[in-house]
Amino acid sequence: MGDVAMTVPVLSALTKQYPRLKITVLTRAFFGPMFAQLPNVTVYEADVKGRHKGIVGLYKLYKELRPLQIEAVADLHNVLRSNVLKVYFRTGGIPFFQIDKGRKEKKALTSWKNKLFAPLKTTHERYADVFNEMGYPIDLTMASALAKESLSDKILKLIGTDAKKWLGLAPFAAFEGKVYPTHLMEAVIEELHQTKNYKILLFGGGQSEERQLNNWQEKFDNCINVVGKLSFSEELALISNLDGMLSMDSGNGHLAAMYGIPVITLWGVTHPYAGFNPFGQNSANA
User: How many CB atoms lie within 10 A of CB 251?
Assistant: First the structure.
């Protein structure tokens, strides 16, 4: 999810600088709400677990996309599926441009020996490089944060309307090595709780994560676990209204950054030098 969220500020800058450009984002339908505010951007569902599964399914996807009169493809993912699509598009005479993920540089950054410990090009810059290669150079400073979204009665009933600052907390990540130890995170929550200044909104997913978030909700009266209680669109609306977000190197930090929300990221086995810091954030907050 984080990789997808990181495309949003890049597309924001692209659409601002090339307002006549029509863009079709190929992604999971679940991620569609991320792009709702971007002009001239539509989302086409890639059902990779259903009708677009496998080589035959990807060929069906290619055939479905052809009537859209696509003139060029920007592959911001560069994985096995997109490489299969590359063969189909190039065979059909459609230019196909792919991201350079910087694997060699990242290997040097993480090497035990002869480590080259220095900031690498950011993922946002790598995305922009793809469009530059296509003939659409981008000035990323022109990217605009998405507008704050209105909160439904359902969200307001869940969160309440008191005067405390709303702090999002996303304490989990896809890999255990990225996660701040649970007992230490609880100590952070305890300290925030003692200030009585914050309403802490807990984000996550999965049964074990939900159980832990429920434990914190029961222990601290200023914590609210939102997992399973809101749709993805509603979660985005809630995130857009936060005063701040504390996350791991994970998707929720990038979602908050889309809306210009201040984000503090905690890093475990990964490092912001690899280029995954949320967009537009102060490097001191990582």
Answer: 20
Of 142, 161, 192, which closes a domain? Answer: 142
Per-residue pLDDT band for 46 (boundaries 50, 70, 90) equals very high
CA distance 271 to 194: 30
- Split at pLDDT 50, 70, 90, the class of 115 is confident
148 located within any domain: no
Instruction: Note whether 37 and 107 are same-domain residues.
Output: yes
- Report the number of distinct structural domains present in the chain: 2
pLDDT in tens, 206-238: 788 899 999 999 999 999 999 999 999 999 999
